[in-house]
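User: I'm curious what two different proteins look like when written out as structure tokens. Can you demonstrate?

Assistant: Sure. I'll show them one after the other, since each token string lines up with its own sequence. Here's the first protein:
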Amino acid sequence: MATVLDSVRALFAPNTFTIAAETPADVVARENLLDRAMGPDRRKKSSEKIRRGRVPAEGLALVARDADGHVIGSVRLWNVEAGITTEGNPVDALLLGPLAVDADHEGKGIGSALMRAAITEAHKRDHGAILLVGDAAYYERFGFFADKTRHLVMPGPFERSRFLALELKAGWLEGAAGMIVPSGRKLA
């Protein structure tokens, strides 16, 4: 029989979640989460045009699961070319997105944990930079800034102040200019 103390412990116990690699079994839950979190126009965004017909970068599709194993958060990173250097060489980078957390679990650090896990894994896999389109006030705490993307453009409309980058290797985006284009593996 549960006591009052058990009820208090349950009320104040920290919500637990785990971060793991996305699996094929997560697809429906992830897509439903993204539809709820991003709204009906999510597939019209410039970032989505880059992702369309591609698979995420190797090892860089992550989910957050609640204690029962349900998907409550998601982040994916995609291989892109971030323009070219002054010598004409393409600049390999990653495009992050979307990052989403189920509304019932917002404010519990899940988005931050997913971001840190994604950045750490991208660094481990020797990537040079991560780009994203998002709220600068949120992403600056992870080291993303608009000055790194000043000579880069997204296909279609985008807000310049929301186009941010984090260099995982110092100077990686130095001299990079041009259009962001997909470079990752295509869907089979």
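Here's a second, unrelated protein for contrast:
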Amino acid sequence: MNYIKTLLFILFVGQISAQEKQSILLLNGYLHVGNGEVIESGLVGIRNGKIDLVRNSLAYTFNKEDWDTIIDLQGQHIYPAFVAPNSTLGLTEIDAIRATRDFDEVGQYNPHIRSQIAFNVESKVNSTVRTNGVMLAQATPRGGGISGTSSIMALDGWNWEDATISQDDGIHLNWPASASESGSIEDANSSKRKENYLKQKQAIYQFFELSKRYASLSEKDQNDVRLNAMIACFKGTKRVYIHANELQQLVDVIDFSIRFDLPFPVIIGGYDSHLVTKKLIDAKIPVMLVRTHSLPQNEEDAVDFPYHLPAILQNAGVKFCLQNAGDKETANARNLPFQAGTAMAYGLTEEQAIRSISLSTCEIVGIDNEYGSIQEGKSATLFVSKGNALDMRSNQVNVALIRGIFISTNNFQQELYEKYKKKYNK
């Protein structure tokens, strides 16, 4: 009964959008640290929004008076918050209504467009995603050659400032479609496609040449808002996310990254990345992998090839994480844990699958010193699921914290379900 009362207390507190940070002790949970480690009877202590203690419950004696809240999890699973990279979460509400879409600006090169200030913390979609353990997102603009600059956001907060985890983490470059991407290279239009590809690639090189020279100017001579947004890309405080899938694109992206000596290039998509694993490792370029739940892009590929791709990169030693860009990506971000579950069924271990949507993502976007794993000193951003969070049959989040503050594990869809269940059960 005490356990049930504690959970009811948490659910009540979770309805409040902000509260005082408490000292919280979670014990007797099956702890997935996020870095590959597991503690079968884990204990996690939280103070001032930080993880203060990670121990084995069976080998640690604690004083109840030292903690404001103590929750006996009775074997439930503890996970670090899952992260949705390359996502339009918070930037759109209803895809069919233009007024609710705030992720695509006019213009070809828009590195100065910032998603952070457009992020909507009141989005109802966010609450449905949190229900499955996805609690952080990389709010990412779309369209054009350079879409803009993304930011890492918490899916709860008072406003976009309060929700910001990492401001302006990187720009997003959409690599042009290669000559062979839309069909056989021998067909009648291949020469024209090749010409267009080379022309677009040359334009990208010219823009980056201009940006790099501009970055070398003194501060008093830097007065171009677009080029100002590019400076950090060459100084290593901003990543360059390059969206590319096909083999020719990937080879050219690797050469491009080396040519401009980019400190932190990242490939988003990388469908053919298994063909250039050695090049990716040598160039130290990680991959935000194409959606696992997708159809093969090449005629000769097996229908389940996308399911195998994470394990192929894992075995090759390429740093990667999973992302969900594609049709209806905002609402379907809730399925990110189940994409990791599919990758687990096709070659990854359970802890590798968990890492691919937690710590690996945080390492790639540069927030791993605070997020991505349940370790002492890191932010207390984590959740508890009654069953395995990678399995849609057992994922049932009932405790969630962002930066040490309890958040609601409910959403409007669940509320509607309960409402009509009462009506029709009569």
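A detail about the second structure: Residues 1-18, 182-186 have pLDDT under 50 and may be disordered.
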